[in-house]
Structures are given as C-alpha cells and as structure tokens.
C-alpha cells in the first residue's frame, strides 16, 4: 500500500477537527507514521503497559477493555475504520494503562509515536485545535455512555449501540456486545428476540 494513500486518509480525518495548512502538512515528519498489521487477538496495548504510540485504523476492528477486581472483562468501547486508537491519560501521567486495546479481526494501523505527537503540539496551532476537538469528542462519547447507563434500560442501550456502531453487529462477538451494554449474553438474546418480534431490527 502506498504510504501517501495512508497519510491522505489520515489528513482527511484530522481535518474534521481543524484545517491543516498545506505547508504545515508538508513540514510534518511523515516518516514517523508506520503501517503495522495486527492479527486477530493481537494487542495494540496491554493492561499494565505504559503507552508510547497512537494509531489510525486503516482497516479492522479493535476493542477497548478493562478487567474488574473479580477478574471479569468489561468492554469500554469499540473502534473501527477511520478512528484513532490512543491511551492519552496513562501516557500523560506516565502510568501503566488500566485498560487494554485488542484487535478483534485482522487489522492495519498507521502508528506514530506519542513523543512525535507532543512535538507537533508544540508547533503549529492547528495541532492544538485538532487535539482539543478530539478530546472534546471523547468526553462527549464518555458522557453519553454514562448517561445511557444511568437513565436508559438495556433495550434502549442496545438500540443506541446499533445507531452508534451500525456495522458492528456481525463483526463483534455477541458476548462482547453484551459486556459493552452491561448485560449478560442471555439478556441480549432476549432483547434481540423481542425487538425482532416488534420489527425494530432484522
């Protein structure tokens, strides 16, 4: 795959947050962006690791998950094509990550070093704007998810999941979707059956 194709797609996604002047894009050290293949089950970040890189998903699917004190896995989020993967808070605090990021299918990432990210932030103001908007979107996503858990029932949370991740129903294992929703796989099966009976899902 031509690296220039990777980079233009990255730029297109970054410019959803703020425009990047052509001369600034040309000055960016694009050799720091490295295509990396991840096989199904391979970790982008393991629990306990201190993160040192970010990634842009060219193709594939990842889950962000944590482990409870009882040893149960909990799915925090899914990330698919044209999304960024990162562990900002552990990186900024130089602390081991309390969550992991794992490929759910064969995937290709465009990876770059978080130190490179910090150097960009110290340069042209467009990078600070992009970073701020990106973090704002993560905050909105987190707040929306918390609201769903506090105010919505499991059926509504599932319908919201289908709207948020319309292409993941057949890509993510059902037990992981159930974990994301905070219910058991059996409860998810019942919800799906009830919604099919009401013709709300296919």
TrEMBL record:
PROSITE patterns: CNMP_BINDING_3
InterPro entries: cNMP-bd_dom, cNMP-bd_dom_sf, RmlC-like_jellyroll
Domain of life: Bacteria
Classification via Pfam families: cNMP_binding
Domain Cyclic nucleotide-binding: 32-121
Classification via SUPFAM superfamilies: cAMP-binding domain-like
Protein name as it appears in the record: Cyclic nucleotide-binding protein
């Amino acid at each position: 795959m031509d690296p220039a194709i990777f980079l233009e797609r990255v730029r297109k996604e970054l410019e959803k947050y703020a425009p990047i002047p052509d001369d600034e894009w040309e000055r960016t050290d694009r050799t720091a962006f490295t295509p990396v293949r991840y096989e199904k089950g391979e970790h982008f970040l393991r629990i306990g690791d201190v993160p040192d890189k970010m990634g842009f998903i060219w193709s594939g699917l990842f889950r962000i998950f944590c482990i409870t004190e009882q040893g149960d896995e909990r799915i925090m989020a899914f990330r698919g094509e044209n999304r960024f993967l990162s562990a900002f808070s552990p990186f900024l605090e130089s602390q081991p990550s309390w969550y992991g990021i794992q490929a759910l299918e064969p995937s290709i990432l465009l990876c770059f070093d978080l130190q490179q990210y910090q150097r960009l932030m110290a340069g042209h103001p467009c990078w600070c704007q992009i970073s701020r908007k990106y973090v704002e979107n993560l905050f909105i996503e987190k707040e929306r998810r918390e609201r769903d858990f506090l105010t919505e029932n499991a059926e509504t949370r599932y319908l919201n999941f289908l709207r948020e991740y319309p292409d993941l129903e057949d890509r993510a294992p059902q037990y992981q979707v159930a974990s994301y929703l905070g219910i058991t796989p059996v409860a998810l099966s019942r919800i799906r059956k009830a919604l099919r009976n009401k013709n709300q899902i296919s």
